[in-house]
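Appendix B. One record, verbatim.
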Amino acid sequence: MSFPHPRKFLALACVAALAAVPILASPEYPEMGPDIYDVHANGTAQIAAALGRAAAEHKRVVLVFGANWCIWCHRLHNTLETDPTVSRILGDHFVLVDVDVNRRKGVDRNADVVARYGNPTRLGLPVLVVLDAGGRQLCTKDSGELEEGHGHSPKKIAEFLTLWSPAGNP
């Protein structure tokens, strides 16, 4: 039995390794930057996983319904990720789930999830829904009420999250 020359073997190994690396999908709307919402995710499964984690960690769940084309969804996402106070409150008290509700090629993504929570998207995008660890819907929030200027107010978001945290317990 003969083995390929070491250089040939190395070249074949590199090709095999590259073939094994998943190709990252392009953003759904490249002009908006990286996707926030997983266009292939099943919202029901995302929420079930979040509820399991929330129960284990004594937290609540925040659902953010939105779409990758939505500038306000990107702005809210940025505030949730980058503001230290908001990020701390989220991490300490909530499990965050971004639910894609885009309509594309005649398909309303996660329409069953939108219906289950009383069609919160009627308020526009993004919209937030707070659940307790058992899955009971506690609050639906029009994110427009959290806006300030060309973005979202970290202070308003922090107040909202604090109010609906397990410690705030409304």
